[in-house]
Amino acid sequence: MVIFLLSSKNSHSARTIPQMATKLPPILLVVFLFLITGVQIATTDEPIPSPWQHQFHALLFMNYSGDLSMIDLWYDWKNGRNFNIIQEQLGGITYDLEWNNGTSFIYSLDESRSCRSAQLEVGILRPNWLDGAKYLGQQHVNGFLCNVWEKVDFIWYYEDVETKRPVQWIFYTGREAHVMTFEVGAVLEDEKWQAPLYCFNKEKKNLSSREGGLREFRGYKEKAIL
Ligand SMILES: *[C@@H]1O[C@H](CO)[C@@H](O)[C@H](O)[C@H]1NC(C)=O
Ligand SMILES: *[C@@H]1O[C@H](CO)[C@@H](O)[C@H](O)[C@H]1NC(C)=O
Ligand SMILES: *[C@@H]1O[C@H](CO)[C@@H](O)[C@H](O)[C@H]1NC(C)=O
């Protein structure tokens, strides 16, 4: 390819070659073209993270500096909704429900009947939210060989090389999510997505950015990076 370009340049139609290139001695032009194609090969070789499945259920083991919790994550892009059901270790359950119109509710179903809501400019995470992440190579994590990416100093994401399933991610805050189960296509029944009445009838309390199961994602979306 390079040889062909050079010989066609030398034989005729020199005026069609850009000025910069014609000023280069042929040997430099070869190096120049080689570098360009070399760089292209290097970047296209790098793996990219799999887009999120449009519907899945994952059980996440969370560790935030020793505060442990389990999260039932129901990601449902098709229906424009996302649910984190958070069980604190030996503690209460918090329901963190997000709709693609930007409305979020965080509530409990116990006697406290608490509910806070937020209205964001953006909806739930898009399936391709990892696009543009920087590839960092491979690493063994809890016995799984993973490809590792970092996105805008916000998240470090580990995906199993073989199955392409997420194995863990770590937020910039140090909060770790370890993926314990990952069921593609699992959908939570519609009734379970209904926020309780007390989310609607009393004066709404606004959600602080420090609340919620995967609260870093909320901060990330608020910055509207995507
Ligand atoms: C949770 O993370 C801390 C570090 O932040 C670590 O020392 C601890 O061992 C972890 N706990 C579990 C159960 O993984
Ligand atoms: C967004 O959708 C949810 C679920 O249908 C609804 O409860 C909420 O009021 C909607 N928010 C807005 C701002 O329309
Ligand atoms: C909650 O946020 C909305 C919109 O940002 C604002 O208009 C409202 O005053 C806030 N309410 C409280 C109680 O802070």
Overall description:
This protein is an alpha+beta fold and 226 residues long. The protein folds into two domains: 2-45, no CATH class; 55-222, Clam (outer membrane lipoprotein receptor (LolB), chain A). 21% of the residues lie in helices and 37% in strands. The chain has a twelve-stranded mixed beta sheet with strand order 7-8-9-10-11-1-2-3-4-5-6-12, with no helix packed on it. Strand 10 and strand 11 (176-184) form a beta hairpin. The longest helix is centred in the first third of the chain and has 20 residues, at 26-45. The chain binds 2-acetamido-2-deoxy-beta-D-glucopyranose (3 copies). Residues 63, 65-66, 68 line the site of one 2-acetamido-2-deoxy-beta-D-glucopyranose. One 2-acetamido-2-deoxy-beta-D-glucopyranose binds next to loops.
| Bound molecule types | 2-acetamido-2-deoxy-beta-D-glucopyranose
How many distinct beta strands? 12
CATH fold naming of the largest domain: outer membrane lipoprotein receptor (LolB), chain A
Residue ranges: pLDDT <50 for 5 or more in a row? Answer: 1-18
Mean pLDDT across residues: 83
Radius of gyration: 25 Å
Helix tally equals 5
Helix content: 10-25%
CATH class of the largest domain: Mainly Beta
Q: What is the name of the CATH architecture of the largest domain? A: Clam
Structural classification: alpha+beta
Identify the strand order in the major beta sheet: 7-8-9-10-11-1-2-3-4-5-6-12
Estimate the strand proportion: 35-45%
Query: Oligomer, anyone?
Result: single chain
Instruction: Note the overall shape.
Output: globular
Number of domains: 2
Which sheet architecture does the biggest sheet show? 12 strands, mixed
Element string (H = helix, E = strand): HHHEEEEEEEEEEEHEH
Span between termini = 38 Å
Protein name: Transferring glycosyl group transferase
